[in-house]
Amino acid sequence: MSAFAWVDERLGRVTMYRLLTLGLSALAVVALVLAATDVIFLDPRAMVASAAVAVAASVASAWAAALAFRTRPHTESAVITGLILFFLFWPTLEARYLGTLALAAMLANLSKYVLAWRGRHLLNPAAAGALLVGLTGWDATTWWVADRWLLVPVALLTLVIVVRTRRYALVGTFVAVAVLAVAVRLVVEGSTPWAAVSTALVSYPILFLGGVMLTEPLTLPPRRWQQLVEAGVVGVLMAVSYHVGPLYSTPEAALVVGNLIGFAWGQRGAVRLTLTRSTRLTPRTVELAFRADRPVRFRPGQYVELTVPHARPDSRGTRRVFSVSSAPSADELTVALTVPEKASTFKRALAALPVGSRIRATGLGGDFVLPSAADRPLLLVAGGIGITPFASQLAALAAAGERRDVVLVHGVADHADLAYADVAQAAGARVLVLSPTPDLDGLPAGAVHLGERRLTVEALAESVPDLAQRDAYVSGPPAMVDGTRALLRRAGARRVRTDAFSGY
To answer: Is residue 12 classed exposed, middle or buried when 0-12, 13-18 and 19+ CB atoms within 10 A define those classes?
Structure first.
């Protein structure tokens, strides 16, 4: 395993909520130390007071709003909202401005319920709270986190978030567009190109906004090209100066515009799902089938985010992403999961749901979809439960009566773990199995045993001689995906799409 894959795998063990809580807290501690040593010109006492007010007001208002709307509060989400607002408003000991900071936190949490559609909030809560306070004229954001002494810590936090979420294109596009747009404006105003770029990176909260706030999954559109459009729009708006009544050009206003664009494209609101059956596909894999209260729009290969509240959740939280394994035309929406001996509390709660239980699907999206051209041959490589997006794609092909030239390579620890073999057979795919199990009798009908060890260039060249002409897709754990992608490149594949999952 490469160092990058090792880091990626370790980060995948922590939920994004916990990662953001720890990351923002660490950034606050670094800022406090810099202030205490007179490196940055902030009052340490004011920083402690502002942080305490922002977090306390956010948590208290989150609980109050949840009580009013008869739902469960998400304390860690409220802590994150408070910490973000701490970095947006100037730290102070004045009661008036501490009050407006508390108001921003309360408005932020209230926006999750009021500025929402079918259980899904439209705007980044911290951006919404900051913008609403700005519209009152009682206070304004300063985004003091954009400081040259905090540039490296913020960059490290952004890097961790990007690696964990794999939002390389989203954050990269936003940073590039925002830096370019701001630099162009500064050059027009008289700065030199180098000074303009330096100022854009150091004095504008581009990294913080892009890494910490733009990446919030609930406010992003489902497809990558849509996300890139949103990133570009927000990046350009970072450099546009305007003043309309009480509305001024601010980073939070730019992000709110991007959020509205994302909402226009996305699955508008949460979907209620009712569990209709639970089927054991293999000794370690369970398939759950749900009936949706309203039509669920998705493309084969996309994912669904499920929320399963349960007692004493561990660090993995109450929300996880799963690839949909059913075809869009199916009467039920299905997902499959492995339940190891030391499963997370989320997996145990999900697998133990009785038939008739109702849960929420809070997001649908992803770009792991097949090309629309039916004449393009395909190579699908799955590691273990990574077969699920391919099951959806192959089931959709079979349902539509569409025959494609498909080779499926499925790597498992045992032939008994081969899930959805019947789906692959119904779609007419050629199935190659990579497994340490030498018993050929345990293979599904028509499948070929590719070998007992890991995939090699030689095995691929022999089994798939036309690999260079195929669109390759890889799905599975991050380390497996990264290694297989590199191997396919060495074997001559020109187009490789990946779908890595490390838990949410």
So the answer is: buried
User: What total number of domains does the chain contain?
Assistant: 3
**Which residues in 258-417 belong to E strands, given as ranges?**
271-282, 285-292, 303-307, 319-323, 333-338, 358-365, 378-383, 406-411
pLDDT in tens, 414-429: 888 889 999 999 999 9
Which residues does residue 474 pair with via DSSP β-bridges, in sequence order?
Answer: 381, 498
Model confidence pLDDT, tens digit, residues 161-172 = 998 888 999 999
280 Cβ neighbours under 8 A, 6+ residues apart: 286, 287
Q: Both 357 and 284 in a single domain?
A: yes
What is the number of other CB atoms lying within 10 angstroms of the CB of residue 335? Answer: 24
CA 14 to chain centre: 13
Who's near 331: CB < 8 A, 6+ residues apart? 291
Compute and round to an integer the Cα radius of gyration of the chain: 24
pTM (two decimals): 0.77
Task: Please state the three-class secondary structure of 64-123 as a single string.
Answer: HHHHHCCCCCCHHHHHHHHHHHHHHCCCCCCHHHHHHHHHHHHHHHHHHHHCEECCEECC
Contact between 15 and 65 under an 8 Å Cβ cutoff? The reply is no
Which of 249, 265, 281 terminates a domain? The answer is 265
Q: Strand 378-383 and strand 406-411: pairing?
A: parallel
215: left (phi over 0), alpha (psi -120 to 50) or beta: alpha
